[in-house]
Design a protein that fits this description.
By secondary structure, this protein is mainly α. It has eight helices and two strands; from the N terminus they run βααβαααααα. The longest helix is centred in the last third of the chain and has 22 residues. It is globular. The N and C termini lie far apart (44 Å).
Length: 121
């Protein structure tokens, strides 16, 4: 029995790469990605991937991480679309009250998780 190379859908590969699929080249969106291709993209990213990672648009998990809040916090703030690095920096520099509140909420969630872990739960 021969084994086939493992492949994944472009959406899965984009998620693993931390990039926003609609911003990728059409050739990436319409094909399949093998495990070897994914590894090559991670170890030696082409220009389009470096640019996406640096400038965006970024998917919601990346936006949330860059802002230091949860994905739910993004939704509560009404941010449902991908954002560029410049847009994220604009939010950070304007420091809206919702961002401070969501960061406080996220910090509390992390403290509680650490407490539970320390208790062995």
């Amino acid at each position: 029995m021969t084994s086939r190379p493992q492949t994944m859908k472009p959406a899965t590969a984009a998620k693993k790469l931390g990039i926003y699929l609609p911003a990728t080249p059409e050739s990436f969106q319409s094909g399949v990605v093998s495990r070897d291709e994914l590894n090559a993209l991670q170890s030696d990213p082409p220009e389009w991937l470096r640019s996406l990672r640096q400038n965006g648009p970024h998917p919601r998990p990346v936006v949330a991480a860059k802002l230091g809040i949860s994905i739910g916090g993004l939704a509560r703030a009404g941010l449902t679309d991908a954002l560029t690095t410049a847009e994220i920096e604009e939010i950070k520099s304007s420091a809206p009250s919702w961002l401070e509140q969501e960061r406080a909420t996220q910090a509390e969630v992390r403290r509680e998780a650490a407490r539970l872990k320390a208790e062995g739960r």
